[in-house]
Design brief:
The protein is mainly beta. Helix content is 1%, strand content 43%.
C-alpha cells in the first residue's frame, strides 16, 4: 500500500573495535525503508548507533496496524522491542524484552547511552545481551487475532576483549576475542502487546535459538535446544503439548495445508554457528531431519 521495502541491515566491521570507524556508522544496525521502483531511501531508523556489541539488525520487521495506524515491530539483538510508524520511521515505543541489559540504555525517546563496551586493548568486559543478542537471527511472530507478538528470548552474556586487527579479505574481521557464556543463562517465549508491554512469558532453562510460529488456532509453536518441540496457548502461554525431536531446534517452523488438513513442519539440527549462540550444546546431536505434525483426521 505504501510502496515501501523495509530492509534490516547488519553491523559495522570490525564488530567490536570502534576506534577505526568513528561516528554513528549510519545505516548499519538499522531498518531502511526504500522505494522499490528507484531504490531511493524514504526513511531510516538506526537501532544501535556506533555498534560495539555486534548487534546487527537484519532480522524480521513485522508489519501490523493499530487504531488505523500502519506500524512496524522489531525485536533487536540489543534487547529492546521497537515499534515504529512504518510510513515515516517515527518511534512509537521502545521496551526491554530481556531481563538483563547492561551494555547501555535506550530511553523512551530512543536516545542511546552506552555503558559497557570493549574500550581498551586486551581488557575484558562482560555485557548483556552478548553478541548472540536478546534475540538472534531467528524470528518473532505476530498474531492479528490475539494482537500479541511472540519472541524467542536469549538471556545470556559474553566476555569480550578488544584485539586490533587489520582487514584481510576472506578473514573474520571482529576486532576482539569473544567468549559466549556457557553458564548462568536462560530463555523464554515472551508475549508482548501492541503497546510494547509484556503479556506473558513461558520460561526455559536454555536460551531459545529457533524461530517461533503462531497460527489462527491461537497456538504458538517453539522448539528448544534440548530437542523439545512445544505448543503453547497464544492467549495465556499455557503449555499444551510437546514432542522430543532428538536434536536441538535452530531454525524456523512453518505451517501449510493439503486438502484442507493443516500441517506443522520443523527442521532440527545444530548445523549453524553453535559456539556463538549456545556453546554448552557443542557436541550435541546434529539431527538434520524434518518433522511434520498434524491433528488426527478424525
Amino acid at each position: 500500500e505504501l510502496n515501501l521495502l523495509y530492509w534490516g541491515t547488519g553491523n559495522p566491521a570490525p564488530d567490536f573495535d570502534g576506534e577505526v570507524r568513528e561516528g554513528d556508522n549510519l545505516f548499519t544496525d538499522s531498518v531502511v525503508a526504500v522505494n522499490p521502483d528507484d531504490g531511493e531511501i524514504v526513511w531510516h531508523y538506526q537501532y544501535t548507533p556506533h555498534d560495539l556489541w555486534d548487534y546487527d539488525s537484519n532480522m524480521e520487521n513485522i508489519l501490523f496496524e493499530k487504531d488505523g495506524r500502519k506500524l512496524l515491530g522489531h525485536f533487536d539483538k540489543n534487547g529492546y522491542f521497537f515499534i515504529l510508524d512504518r510510513t515515516n520511521g517515527e518511534l512509537v515505543s521502545v521496551t526491554p524484552f530481556v531481563d538483563r541489559i547492561n551494555w547501555g540504555e535506550i530511553d523512551a525517546e530512543g536516545n542511546v547511552t552506552p555503558r559497557i563496551y570493549p574500550e581498551n586493548e586486551g581488557e575484558e568486559v562482560h555485557f548483556y545481551p552478548g553478541p548472540a543478542g536478546g534475540k538472534e537471527w531467528t524470528h518473532a511472530c505476530y498474531n492479528p487475532e490475539t494482537e500479541l507478538f511472540y519472541c524467542p528470548v536469549q538471556d545470556t552474556g559474553s566476555t569480550i576483549a578488544r584485539r586490533r586487527r587489520e582487514f584481510k579479505e576472506g578473514m573474520p574481521y571482529w576486532g576482539a576475542h569473544v567468549i559466549v557464556d556457557s553458564e548462568d543463562m536462560k530463555g523464554s517465549v515472551s508475549a508482548f502487546n501492541t503497546s510494547g508491554e509484556e503479556a506473558w512469558r513461558w520460561e526455559t532453562e536454555l536460551p531459545m535459538c529457533s524461530s517461533v510460529l503462531t497460527t489462527a488456532g491461537d497456538l504458538v509453536f517453539a522448539g528448544e535446544p534440548t530437542g523439545w518441540f512445544n505448543a503453547l496457548d497464544a492467549n495465556t502461554g499455557e503449555h499444551l503439548w510437546r514432542f522430543q525431536c532428538g536434536s536441538g531446534h535452530h531454525s524456523s517452523p512453518t505451517t501449510y495445508s493439503v486438502d484442507g488438513r493443516q500441517y506443522i513442519a520443523v527442521p532440527v539440527g545444530w548445523g549453524a554457528w553453535v559456539e556463538g549462540f549456545l556453546p554448552g550444546m557443542m557436541g550435541g546431536p546434529h539431527g538434520s531431519a524434518i518433522f511434520v505434525f498434524a491433528l488426527p483426521e478424525e
